[in-house]
């Protein structure tokens, strides 16, 4: 019996099991025949990874403006945004130089004096806003992972450019059925030109998602306890894993310094107070989480940049190897939080500092 003679509901289950990666690996696998394509395309769109270049290509294709299997099929969405970099830079690994900038030349409506970086930022955030519309309509979407950073400048004191629009990101996080959220953001947020706001503060939007999340992993340049405050009064949550990584270190060539996350808005209190406040709110949140529970806060110590994971539930601190996942168990090194001397790196020059 031919595979394609099976009932449609059976074929749908089979292609779901085949998964997206099978088709991403070779797009020719989509085109066996017309009937095959009808079942393969939704499987292809089930799990999608966008860079700023591939997202721009999708928007330019017009897919967003018409009925698309992306809306009906999308379950896992990954965004990998590396920022604007020049193609001809010899200071970065070749793999980044080839991917980092789609603006090879000014567009037809760009004046000669226009800043190409500003143009890139505007186009990217317009594309993110359109992607947010698709995400909000995708009822099967349960996993969102966003990595946004700029490959560091040769000048070690340079800060990464804040290129994410806060309204666009808030819209992208306005999802109803999200179960897994991973944000790894070493760049900050800003308002688009001509718009005004009271502050670039995305933590409350993340707190709103706690009512549906099962897993939350966060590393952000600016953070505060609001990110761990649910916005509803339910007695319990489905949430079982929370990891807040406050270390902005990266295993990248040439990086010899790093800093920790800063508090949103005012800098009052410093790093130690921020960690204490985050720990206190994590303890409150843990009382409403579903067992088994994992609640961790990651920092790094100086001068060796060792990653240390504080288990909020037990008070133990573990040392993590560079290749370990944020929520893995490392070697226990102490029963209490970090000594002050290991965390006071605010005066340390860093490519990820927002000074």
3D architecture notes:
- This protein is α/β, with parallel strands linked by helices and 355 residues long.
- The protein folds into two domains: 1-43; 44-343, no CATH class.
- It is built from eleven helices and 14 strands.
- A ten-stranded mixed sheet has the order 1-2-3-5-7-9-11-12-13-14. Strands 4-6 form a two-stranded parallel sheet. It has a two-stranded parallel ribbon with strand order 8-10.
Fill in the keyword field for this structure.
single chain; 355 residues; alpha/beta; 2 domains; 10-stranded mixed β-sheet; two-stranded parallel ribbon; 11 helices; 14 strands; globular; disordered C terminus
Q: Secondary structure elements and their pairing?
A:
Layout: H1 8-18, H2 20-25, H3 34-44, E1 47-51, H4 52-61, H5 69-73, E2 76-81, H6 94-99, H7 116-137, E3 143-148, E4 164-165, H8 166-172, E5 180-185, E6 189-190, H9 203-208, E7 215-220, E8 222-223, E9 241-245, E10 262-263, H10 270-286, E11 294-300, E12 307-311, E13 317-320, E14 331-334, H11 340-343
Parallel strand pairs: 1-2, 2-3, 3-5, 4-6, 5-7, 7-9, 8-10, 9-11
Antiparallel strand pairs: 11-12, 12-13, 13-14
Helix pairs in contact: 4-7, 7-8
């Amino acid at each position: 019996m031919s595979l394609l003679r099976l009932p449609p509901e059976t074929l749908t289950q089979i292609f779901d099991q085949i998964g997206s990666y099978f088709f991403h690996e070779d797009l020719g696998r989509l085109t066996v025949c017309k009937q095959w394509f009808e079942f393969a395309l939704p499987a292809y769109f089930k799990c999608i990874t966008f860079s700023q270049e591939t997202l721009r290509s999708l928007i330019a294709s017009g897919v967003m403006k018409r009925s698309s299997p992306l809306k009906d099929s999308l379950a896992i969405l990954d965004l990998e945004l590396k920022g604007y970099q020049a193609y001809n830079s010899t200071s970065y690994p070749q793999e980044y130089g080839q991917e980092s900038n789609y603006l090879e030349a000014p567009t037809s409506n760009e004046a000669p004096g226009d800043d190409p970086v500003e143009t890139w930022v505007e186009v990217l955030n317009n594309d993110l806003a359109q992607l947010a519309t698709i995400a909000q309509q995708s009822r099967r979407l349960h996993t969102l992972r966003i990595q946004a950073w700029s490959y560091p400048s040769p000048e070690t004191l340079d800060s990464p450019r804040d290129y994410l629009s806060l309204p666009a990101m808030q819209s992208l996080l306005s999802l109803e059925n999200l179960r897994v959220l991973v944000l790894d953001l070493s760049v900050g947020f800003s308002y688009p030109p001509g718009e005004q706001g009271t502050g670039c503060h995305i933590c409350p939007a993340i707190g709103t998602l706690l009512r549906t999340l099962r897993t939350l992993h966060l590393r952000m340049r600016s953070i505060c306890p609001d990110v761990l405050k649910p916005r509803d009064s339910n007695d319990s949550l489905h949430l079982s894993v929370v990891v807040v990584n406050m270390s902005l270190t990266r295993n990248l060539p040439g990086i010899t310094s790093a800093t920790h996350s800063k508090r949103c808005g005012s800098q009052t209190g410093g790093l130690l107070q921020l960690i204490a406040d985050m720990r206190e709110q994590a303890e409150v949140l843990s009382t409403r989480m579903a067992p088994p529970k994992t609640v961790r806060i990651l920092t790094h110590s100086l001068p060796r940049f060792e990653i240390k994971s504080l288990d909020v539930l037990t008070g133990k601190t573990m040392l993590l190897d560079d290749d370990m996942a944020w929520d893995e168990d490392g070697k226990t090194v102490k029963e209490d939080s970090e000594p002050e001397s290991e965390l006071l790196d605010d005066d340390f020059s860093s490519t990820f500092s927002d000074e």
